[in-house]
Amino acid sequence: MSMVSELTKRLRKYAAEYDLLPFGREIEGTSELLLEAADTIETLCEKLQVTNMDRREMQQYQAIVKSGGVVDE
What we know:
Elements (H helix, E strand, L loop, with lengths): L2 H16 L11 H37 L7
Helix pairs in contact: 1-2
């Protein structure tokens, strides 16, 4: 399991546990904030993965062009 997956799993667990006694939602909105943080982390991680894939594709394309290879568009 990746570090990001583990972190978001822990945040969601803490959010669920925070709603249980003895805490009883001491600070209103805390569990929602933890869930929102987990969602944001997952979304940013997904966007980063897409960006990295796009960058690799561009580097492969540039390598082909630089080597004089034929590029199918």
